Protein: Nitrous-oxide reductase
Amino acid sequence: MSDKKKAIENLGRRHFLRNSAVTGVAGAGLAGGFGAGALMSSHEARAAENGIEVAPGELDEYYGFWSGGHQGEVRVLGIPSMRELMRIPVFNIDSATGWGITNESKRILGDSARFLNGDCHHPHISMTDGRYDGKYLFINDKANTRVARIRLDIMKTDKITTIPNVQAIHGLRLQKVPHTKYVFANAELPIPQVNDGRDLETPDNYFTMFNAIDAESMEVAWQVIVDGNLDNTDADYTGRFAASTCYNSEKGMTLADTMRADRDWVVVFDIEAIEAAVEAGDHETLGDSEVPVLDGRKGSKLTRYIPVPKNPHGINTSPDGKYFIANGKLSPTCSIIAIDKLPELFDDAIEPRDTVVGEPELGLGPLHTTYDGRGNAYTTLFIDSQVAKWNIEDAIRAYNGEEVNYLRQKLDVHYQPGHNHASLTESRDADGKWLVVLSKFSKDRFLPVGPLHPENDQLIDISGEEMRLVHDGPTFAEPHDCILLRADQLNPSRTWTRDDPYFAETVAMAEADGVTLESDNTVIRDGNQVRVYMTSIAPQFGLTEFKVKQGDEVTVVVTNLDQVEDLTHGFVMVNHGASMEIGPQQTASVTFTADRPGVYWYYCSWFCHAMHMEMTGRMLVEKA
Structure:
């Protein structure tokens, strides 16, 4: 064994201070915990050296989009500062913006508005020719089997789709080329087909599906039934193949049952063959759903099953388009699958394991792999609490019997890392500058805040030969994954446009009422339904008083006439659970019942002017 390899294997968490902090690698992380005063000057010097110091008034080089985990939202961070810029509500209720409260957001949520929770895992950005195009971000909800789309021009959720016939959407990735036509989504947990009370105690009749959602319409295009379960997924750079891990090929109903086999598999989907089968009518429908369902179980021409060790979790496509890399979780290895061998596999010219061209041993609990675009891979080791940097081509050479050390470095992270993500790594443009590691535990890294600890997002400089930990950041409620793209790849709007489809239905309602939203301040009564139209311009609402009767259903529509960037108004009706954000040139509406007589004030909730506190009005509710 080489001296270098021995040194790598000897690295451990217990040596973190000796091997990292003393050389300045982890100054930023320790500055938030013990020894902060002594290390502060070292931290500042290291921040400047590594280029992570973003001074007041300066802008970050990258946007980062974080899944909000159990909060059901998406968070926007600047990289490398790791400053949180915005939160985008998706599957949650958000009183600041009125998401889940306003009529516009309820229309988007649709029938699923009845759910008050979400569990976001995997945010991914739409692509054209394998490069981020900055148009959409997609995110899953494992808790309630949904997929959402966020418009990145306004940073708002604009579509939510509930996936039929399945439960627990987990792994989610996008078609990369020629553009993001499909959002690929794995349903993790097998259920009876149809799930209407039949086969409750017959797990042999449980199945799950690989799902394709049309990225523009957000309708489910087709579903493919598979053996076992489905975990994570990714797509290739030809547009033909997608691949998913299966950690429960046994289809076990208990923990012990899911670990019986020494190997599980990666299932590969031939997208072109699936589309042809749909076109030919070679499918069925299930229950009340009209979505085409195809059979992709073993023996199907639509899929191939590649055995890999054991309970694999993440699967990640290398940015050069050559490999799918599946991470072993209960095996210390990753499996390198050569994408150029997949056509032969589907032609039955080779065996499934012939597509595996490398299986490097990296450490305990490999979960996810990301890339620097220079031929190196970075894999999180959950049990070892480390990131392993390794060279893909060297690992293939070692698999073929050469004496070569593919491991480049192991770096301690804190603690139990799950996802990691390097800058631009899901695209052809992976630039190898920054690596974010999302650690599930923080333990001693931050001030104690009670039994529930924050998680720890860590920023690592990977621009040189050695990884260097430069920042720790506490975060709440398990942000599961993230994605980074250059700031110039996005062009967010500064104000709304009056013809934006986001509030088109509310505009149509006003037109039907004969109301000009940009100028009219009026009340329309239709039986016990009252529509109150008002403008807002800092620091005054167009209506400062209106009268309704007890029991009326009241819809308040506010149009913000301010044209100044960052001049947002709010509307809150006191004691009625109604609040919303109204950005510059936006129209928003909220509906509630005036169920008690009396005087009720409304006010602007977003600070907009020196006279902001005076921006109020009254709703007068007469007794029925």
